[in-house]
Amino acid sequence: MIKGILFDKDGTLIEFNSFWVESAYAMIHSIVSEYSKDNMIEKSQEIARLIGLDGNDVKEDALLAAYTSEDLAIVISNCLQVDRNLIHRKINDFFYEEVVTKSDKMKAVGDLVALFKKLKEHHFRIGIVTADNFDVTQFTLNKLGINEYVDFIATADTYMKKPNVEAMQVFCDQFNLQRNEVIHIGDTMVDMEFSRHGLLGVGVLSGVSSEATLRKFTPYVIKTVEDLFDSEGNFLFEDK
To answer: Do residues 44 and 165 touch, judged by C-beta distance below 8 A?
Structure first.
């Protein structure tokens, strides 16, 4: 019986391209302009390609889509030959400032307040497991109006990053759950790999991955998180 649900954040609860593509390009421009006085255009294009940006789209296996700011820092620091820790701090500071000052560009995937309220009415424990940092995640959940419904938050700066089992295990330990009582919902291959630690994974098509890619990992693929309930208000995995 399912008692807990873990959600990814970007691409699952918020539309990925509505915010992160523009912010990623702005981050690249900011850092390259500070640390590379020559070949700025070429360096910017190289970094964009390396982190998975393809014009206004993000590749399915992109670092930007599923990995941490530390992973981005490794790529950027290697490209610019700048200290990795310095670049990591620059990325974290930049993205937090972007989230705070441009949060109006953040688009929720459907009516999340109604969805999370309904999930709590079904007595589910709810957690967020994301590659983002805690400050950005906390701000985002408050902006979306769902923070009060969330019991657990695991971020890349507080737990081992997905697909490591740590966040799943801590969630279960904290609420006296078994891992086979927890499902994970996400939009990337890394999310689906993390889902294997629990009962099952649910892939959503609101993010960067195609249905064909997600179905390599799970038979459960839905359009958006709003499809967790059918038109009559029944939970999709009631019999699991």
So the answer is: no
How far apart, in whole angstroms, are the C-alpha atoms of residue 178 and residue 194?
15
Q: Give the end-to-end CA distance of the chain in Å, rounded to a whole number.
A: 6
Q: How far apart are CA 191 and CA 12, in angstroms?
A: 10
Q: Pairing relation of β-strands 57-58 and 125-129?
A: unpaired
Residues 66 and 147 in one domain: no
As a whole number of angstroms, the distance between CA 61 and CA 147 comes to 29
126 backbone dihedrals φ, ψ, rounded to 5° = -120, 135
CA 117/CA 123 separation, integer angstroms: 10
Q: How many domains does the chain have?
A: 2
Residue where a domain terminates, one of 48, 73, 104: 104
DSSP 8-state symbol, 76: H
| Integer CA distances (angstroms), 142 to 1, 90, 102, 130, 201, in order | 30, 24, 14, 15, 26
Q: How do strand 57-58 and strand 53-54 relate by DSSP bridges?
A: antiparallel
Q: What is the pLDDT of residues 52-62, one digit of tens each?
A: 998 888 888 88
- The H or E element that residue 128 is part of is strand 125-129
Give the mean pLDDT of the chain.
94
